[in-house]
Amino acid sequence: xxxxxxxxxxxxxxxxxxxxxxxxxxxxxxxxxxxxxxxxxxxxxxxxxxxxxxxxxxxxxxxxxxxxxxxxxxxxxxxxxxxxxxxxxxxxxxxxxxxxxxxxxxxxxxxxxxxxxxxxxxxxxxxxxxxxxxxxxxxxxxxxxxxxxxxxxxxxxxxxxxxxxxxxxxxxxxxxxxxxxxxxxxxxxxxxxxxxxxxxxxxxxxxxxxxxxxxxxxxxxxxxxxxxxxxxxxxxxxxxxxxxxxxxxxxxxxxxxxxxxxxxxxxxxxxxxxxxxxxxxxxxxxxxxxxxxxxxxxxxxxxxxxxxxxxxxxxxxxxxxxxxxxxxxxxxxxxxxxxxxxxxxxxxxxxxxxxxxxxxxxxxxxxxxxxxxxxxxxxxxxxxxxxxxx
Length: 390
Known about the structure:
12 helices
């Protein structure tokens, strides 16, 4: 039996299960180069039309999405094990179950587009171009980490990727600020500002919607609705759980966040909207996290284990994509298995390197405070040092 929160996530998809997709290339005996599917229906707010439900994917792209999602899943499993063995200290928020969100959105963006998210950031750090070994090294506090081991789980950065923000909802106005800079400089790029359903009731979020619409900023506000804000189900926290409608005059749409192709098409639609100068858009992706809010949360005190098992069995984004690719001859079962083995070997190697790499020396503690050398001394451990190492 699914809880109210899980039923809500299912209801938000408002269509047939993705297993019932219509396949255009079914019946061919040999491997095909592309296939066409019909996705779940999108829910719309202040839009006359939305993304197309007819989605075409090439074999190369489909295999890339599968490998990316499998890499995130395997990396997060490794992170969970490292945390349990006390190699990872502090906070650790896993993205398992939500892989289709990051991978699908990234597939519709360009490297020049900008992304800012909350503290469940490992998957996004990877899709933004950071190798798993540098993510795991960051989690274990090593100098080879993406932030030299200083940021940990919640503070990772990359090219046009601004973290990993620990203050609930704070990344939303920051994302609008990035979008303002893009518009001010005449760029055709967009900013994606992600937040969870738990942050959706923050006052600063609504203030940001308002100013973004007033100035028509090229910002996609994305609510990754995984059904729970920490341990609180969405219907216990929000009077209006249709998060894609909550921008008032900002148009919005909702997509199945467990379907990488539906997420890709929704993001592509929203990005084109922003690039055309029409202003911001809200995108809600209905998804589900398999673990607790963080590693310190078992995740089973506020939802039954059967609910998690049911979602894994019937809605898993990785298993679902694998079955579809095989069923339409975009890939063979042997190819998918080989990807799984390759990803496992890559992550296993990354784990060993992350555990073996050196930690930063103590004297580095007060470095990297400023981009450039500050015009004053910064108190440190020597006892004085400048804020940036040369």
